């Protein structure tokens, strides 16, 4: 199959407007005749389901949590980008577009990114109308702050809980449609397969996680908005239930999977504490607005800190290496996430790490300078032009608390250290996945009628996502893109009528799911699901993690292949199918992670360059920065499933043609 991205003609600033003006519509009287399934109820899924319900379609929404309010979007802390230029610092739609393309190391699709920048402002208006409590300045206007990879303030925020507030806004819109009967909500249900009829997506097989019952649900179109696949690494900042199953199931039914090797490592995570840890905790990137990142200049000081003989507050200013400010003076602590992460790894690999754990990996995020600076400003504003040091510190801490208080409280609860008094300890961790299901300009996969939104698709971030852009993409897809493109597709279905779940395709898909469940439950294995998931994560982090090389990737492909066989032969899943069985849920998800992990290593192996979050050690410049190969690798790598042997997957290439942006070396110095 030849990849057709369906990018419209015309100038980039007019593509989306002209395109949507000529899409087919479904009249209001015909929309109640049409069913749509939405899998996932995070920001992308909830906004899509609410929007389509409001339009009059019959929507079925599915989430494996007990409520859409528990979707992982709730964990996003720092903010959401929009090109409003409220700070009058030179922002524009074009600049947001350019920053996103550059931040993704010139590996994103140009037309999709510009559309994202265009609709970003509408998102803020929509959310304000919903009552989302964005931060405001003294005069009552919406406030903005900076995020990594940009030199303007365009990030709207609600303290350190922006994702939660945005999700509550989307959930309120969704709840209204549930109350009107336009959306049927299926909590504690997990999609385990997609059903195709005559080549089109026509429904799903879902498992009721409370009773174990397999259910058939039909629709005229299916939207997958199930998030990313970071938990393939076992330890990540994702919620423990986050998984790739919905996206992987459609991949196995014909949806191409694009750029799986593009994984984001977030620089401000609380370091790994021990081998029994089950997940990692993220500290918002917004903290890099006020915190300065450093390690000791002297190895003996780092060793003394690790041994507990020195405290960071005892290290003199002259003996601190603010390495991001040193290496990237133009952006300093606000370089993009991949750049900041690799810089931290380089310092720790060189022996300057400060955390007393198995790997000595950790750096400081220090707020002392900001406390003094903001304290002096606050004192001056109060008319005290000669404040004491104690007054400065007190006022500075109050300013920090107003801006980031819940984040500081969370850090102290986890680490039992007061970040107002001593610097936070941070280290990079797996966070977001830029890769995902391949979609065209309509957000439709290579399965007709199967659309993919938010983090589950590949389309907007290239090889690295800029901070505060995930919330932007999820809501843009759900509120402002899918209502147009899904309606265009559904215009041909107004005479189709109800789709029967008695069709043989539904029975075949259900039997396939049942067979896999029965196999796990009858397996006479000896090891837990987590045993295998941890082993997979160890391989992935060490060989397909922050840095990769040819030998390690080849070893990873072989080792995952062997681990996958061992998993299916020796995993033990207790309980039965017809009950709440969390171990069975995990087994089904880890089975998909095993296959995906192998494909990620294969994708990283074929991409013989470094770009964004994909860092091949063989391809770096003399200063350790990414070395792209635009002549040979300026493409989206979309993989086609060819059966159980993942090694046989076929790579298809969508060439990336930049008409309106000049490709250049990514420079933040």
Description:
The structure is a single chain. This protein has 3 domains: 15-262 and 434-492, FAD/NAD(P)-binding domain (3-Layer(bba) Sandwich), CATH 3.50.50; 267-430, Flavocytochrome C3, Chain A, domain 1 (Alpha-Beta Complex); 504-628, Fumarate reductase/succinate dehydrogenase flavoprotein-like, C-terminal domain (Methane Monooxygenase Hydroxylase, Chain G, domain 1). By secondary structure, it is an alpha+beta fold. The strands form 5 sheets. Strands 5-2-1-9-17 form a 5-stranded parallel beta sheet, with helices on both faces. The model has no long low-confidence stretch (mean pLDDT 97). A hairpin with a 2-residue loop joins strand 6 and strand 7 (200-208). The two termini are 42 Å apart. It has 17 helices and 19 strands. It catalyses: a quinone + succinate = fumarate + a quinol. One of its GO terms (molecular function) is electron transfer activity. Belongs to the FAD-dependent oxidoreductase 2 family. FRD/SDH subfamily. Residues 533-668 form the Fumarate reductase/succinate dehydrogenase flavoprotein-like C-terminal domain. Keywords: Cell membrane, Electron transport, FAD, Flavoprotein, Membrane, Oxidoreductase, Transport.
């Amino acid at each position: 199959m030849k990849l057709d991205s369906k990018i419209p003609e015309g100038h980039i600033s007019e593509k989306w407007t002209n395109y949507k003006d000529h899409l087919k519509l479904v009249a209001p009287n015909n929309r109640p005749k049409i069913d749509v399934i939405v899998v996932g109820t995070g920001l992308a899924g909830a906004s899509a389901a609410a929007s389509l319900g409001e339009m009059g379609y019959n929507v079925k929404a599915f989430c494996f949590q007990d409520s859409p309010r528990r979707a992982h979007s709730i964990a996003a802390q720092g903010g959401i980008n929009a090109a409003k230029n409220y700070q009058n610092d030179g922002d524009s739609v074009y600049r947001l577009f350019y920053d996103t393309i550059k931040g993704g190391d010139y590996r994103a699709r140009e037309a999709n990114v510009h559309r994202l920048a265009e609709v970003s402002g509408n998102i803020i208006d929509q959310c304000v109308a919903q009552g989302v409590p964005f931060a405001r300045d003294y005069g009552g206007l919406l406030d903005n702050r900076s995020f990594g990879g940009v030199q303007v303030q365009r990030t709207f925020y609600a303290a350190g809980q922006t994702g939660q507030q945005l999700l509550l806004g989307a959930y309120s819109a969704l709840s209204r449609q549930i109350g009107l009967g336009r959306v049927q909500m299926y909590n504690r249900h997990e999609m385990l397969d997609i059903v195709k009829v005559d080549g089109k997506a026509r429904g799903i097989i879902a498992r009721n996680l409370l009773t174990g019952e397999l259910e058939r649900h039909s629709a005229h179109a299916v939207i997958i908005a199930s998030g990313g696949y970071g938990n393939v690494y076992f330890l990540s900042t994702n919620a423990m239930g986050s998984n790739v199953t919905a996206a992987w199931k459609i991949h196995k039914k014909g949806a191409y999977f694009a750029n799986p090797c593009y994984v984001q490592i977030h620089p401000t995570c609380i370091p790994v504490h021990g081998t029994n840890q089950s997940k990692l905790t993220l500290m918002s990137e917004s903290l890099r607005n006020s915190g300065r990142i450093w390690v000791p200049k002297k190895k003996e000081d780092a060793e003394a800190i690790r041994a507990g003989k020195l405290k960071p507050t005892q290290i003199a200013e002259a003996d601190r290496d603010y390495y991001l400010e040193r290496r990237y003076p133009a952006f300093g602590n606000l370089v993009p996430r991949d750049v900041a992460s690799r810089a931290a790894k380089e310092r720790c690999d060189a022996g300057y790490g400060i955390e007393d754990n198995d790997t000595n990996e950790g750096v400081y995020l220090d707020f002392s300078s900001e406390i003094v600076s903001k304290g002096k400003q606050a004192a001056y504003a109060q008319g005290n032009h000669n404040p004491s040091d104690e007054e400065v510190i007190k006022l500075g801490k109050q300013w920090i608390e107003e801006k980031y208080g819940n984040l500081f409280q969370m850090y102290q609860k986890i680490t039992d250290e007061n970040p107002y008094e001593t610097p936070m300890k941070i280290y990079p961790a797996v966070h977001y996945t830029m890769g995902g299901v391949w979609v065209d300009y309509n957000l439709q996969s290579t399965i007709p009628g199967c659309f993919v939104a938010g983090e589950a698709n590949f389309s907007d971030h290239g090889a690295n996502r800029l901070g505060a852009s995930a919330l932007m993409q999820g809501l843009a897809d759900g509120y402002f893109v899918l209502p147009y493109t899904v309606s265009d597709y559904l215009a041909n279905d107004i005479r189709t009528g109800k789709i029967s779940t008695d069709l043989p395709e539904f029975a075949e898909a259900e039997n396939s799911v049942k067979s896999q469940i029965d196999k796990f439950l009858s397996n006479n294995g000896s090891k837990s699901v987590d045993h295998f998931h941890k082993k997979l994560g160890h391989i992935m982090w060490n060989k397909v993690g922050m840095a990769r090389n040819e030998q390690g990737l080849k070893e990873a492909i072989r080792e995952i292949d062997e681990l996958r066989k061992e998993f299916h032969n020796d995993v033990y899943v207790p309980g039965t199918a017809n009950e709440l069985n969390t171990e069975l849920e995990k087994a089904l998800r880890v089975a998909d992670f095993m296959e995906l992990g192998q494909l990620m290593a294969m994708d990283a192996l074929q991409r013989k360059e470094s770009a964004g979050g994909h860092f091949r050690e063989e391809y770096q410049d003399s200063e350790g920065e990414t070395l792209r190969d635009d002549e040979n690798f300026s493409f989206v790598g979309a993989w086609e499933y060819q059966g159980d042997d993942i090694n046989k997957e076929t790579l298809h290439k969508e060439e990336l043609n930049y008409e309106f942006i000049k490709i250049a070396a990514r420079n933040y110095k």
